[in-house]
Amino acid sequence: MSPWSRAHALLLLGAVVGGAAIVPARRLAAEPFSQTRVNADARLLADFKTRVDDYAALLKKLEATLPKLPTEATPQQIDSNQRNLAGLIAKARAKARPGDIFTPPMQTLARTLVARVFASTNSRTLRESIMDENPGPVTLVVNGRYPDAVPLASMPAEILKALPPLPEEIEYRFVGDTLILLDVRAHIVVDFARNALPR
Amino acid sequence: MRNRPSLSLIAATTFAATLLGCQACGSLRVPGTSAPPSETVTVLEQKPSSAPTPLPNREGSLKFAVLGDFGTGDRPQYELAAQMAATHKRFPFELVVLVGDNIYGSERPQDFKKKFEDPYKPLLDAGVKFYASLGNHDAREQRYYKLFNMGGRLYYSFKASKQDVKFFALETTYPVPEQLTWIEAELEDAGEAWKIAYFHHPLYSSGGRHGSDLKLRETLEPLFTQHNVSIVLTGHDHLYERTKPQQGITYFVAGSGGKLRMGDFSANQPFSARVVADTHVFMVVEIFENEMTFNAISRTGAIVDSGIVLRRELSREAK
């Protein structure tokens, strides 16, 4: 996926705030609080985008220092490549802590966006889909390898659409009700937001 | 889980299926198809009391298998894999199309062995090539695994070595906009008589857990219809299903290669022609000129569905 353009980010903003960004001016004047909220969400999303883009840039830079993974690799080569890359990232981000990328306000926004999807669809089916192969809560560590014993759970398309898009090196996954950012190249947890599913 | 049918209903819907041979079905029309009334499309006629349609096993035909939702490493996967190996001895298919959820759970090197290389060893040893697409439980790095023949790509196409057939593998868990542009151009450029698309999420499914992916259908179905795709192969719901032709295209769900959600489907969906949700199933397919013969085979070796599909362009010409 190519890096986000500003236009893309604006389009995204329109989508994630549920159309609030394009309400008529007359209504905006009557609801100054909504506009404030939109601006706050926009700032959060822009900040989140900067953080994930910075991570992806670091990942690419580190990946370039390793031998290129062949397109006809053995499982051992894939595994070794992941672990070597994870080692480099752990070194480069030695001070990384939970909330560095998924900042607390962004976590709150993510919970809101997910809750909005649940409210607009068959929430039981959606929850069942997320919980398919989902083992429930496990210990997660930033920069730690995604737990080998934990299956990758489904990410319903509705939720992916609602959340801000990510560069191709990172994807959203649920582990229990925790929403994680998974580095697909190094197979490590980049950051996470607990209690991301509505009760 | 919606509308779980009774076991007796499941039994009634999973008897060894029976379809007329092609010589008998030349211009039959499937009742209930959504195709325009004047269009002769896929020609299948169910006759529950007659024998399954045999695979012609012709020299020079393209023979392949279809498998999905399989990589558990558990006993049912191994039993179905043994049936695939036994089938291969009498029907030497040269490739297997994988419709995703290839490795469940951990994906360490030993998992690739236990959940893929060991169960399908007889096929791999016989030179059968597997062409994967990725499911929602698959790590994206599987695209580099040499035995999945994805060449590091999430979506790709390849031309079969026999007959005039081209396959298109798509990634439907995290589809990027570029993929849509790509598939449109690929389908437009493809001059092959048979165009077969395969990916994980079904456009049509009676499955209780997931069902039809309507958003994906909205995006892909017009392209498939416009560009003469004849067959679409998917997984995700853990059952076997064949649809009545939908705008001329027959859709299959082959999502019980290792996982099975016993009896979990919505009965009487208008698009559905056959559902098997009480046993694990893989498909074997033979294409020769304008005909595609298929058998769906269970882990006990029973043929639970079979029939013949005419390539779609020919169906149009037959109007």
What can you see in these coordinates?
The complex is a heterodimer of chains A (about 200) and B (about 325). Chain A is mostly helical. The longest helix of chain A has about 30 residues, at about 30-65. Chain A starts with 5 loop residues before the first helix and ends in a 6-residue tail after the last strand. Chain A is globular. Chain A has helices at about 5-15, 25-30, 30-65, 75-90, 105-120, 125-130, 155-160; strands at about 170-175, 180-185, 190-195. Chain A is about 50% helix and about 10% strand. Chain B has about 325 residues and is of the alpha/beta class. Helix content of chain B is about 25%, strand content about 20%. The interface between A and B is medium-sized, with 32 and 31 residues.
Fold topology:
The complex is a heterodimer of chains A (about 200) and B (about 325).
Chain A: H1 6-16, H2 25-30, H3 32-63, H4 75-92, H5 104-119, H6 123-131, H7 157-162, E1 170-175, E2 178-183, E3 188-193
Antiparallel strand pairs in A: 1-2, 2-3
Helix pairs in contact in A: 3-4
Chain B: H1 7-13, H2 22-25, E1 62-67, H3 75-90, E2 95-98, H4 109-117, H5 121-125, E3 129-132, E4 156-159, E5 165-169, H6 177-189, E6 194-198, H7 214-226, E7 231-234, E8 240-243, E9 250-254, E10 272-276, E11 281-288, E12 291-298, E13 303-310, H8 312-317
Parallel strand pairs in B: 1-2, 2-3, 5-6, 6-7, 7-9
Antiparallel strand pairs in B: 1-11, 4-5, 8-9, 8-10, 11-12, 12-13
Strand content of chain B: 15-25%
Helix-strand sequence of chain B: HHEHEHHEEEHEHEEEEEEEH
What is the helical fraction of chain A, as a range of percent? Answer: 40-55%
Give the oligomeric state.
Answer: heterodimer
Shape of chain B: globular
**Secondary structural class of chain A:** mainly alpha
Average pLDDT metric of chain B: 85
Q: In what range is the share of β-strand residues of chain A?
A: 5-15%
How would a textbook summarize the main sheet of chain A? 3 strands, antiparallel
- The helix content of chain B is 10-25%
Radius of gyration of chain B: 18 Å
Q: How would you describe the shape of chain A?
A: globular
Averaged pLDDT of chain A, please?
84
Task: Provide the spatial order of strands within the biggest beta sheet of chain A.
Answer: 1-2-3
The end-to-end distance of chain A, rounded to whole angstroms, is 33 Å
- Radius of gyration of chain A from the CA trace? 18 Å
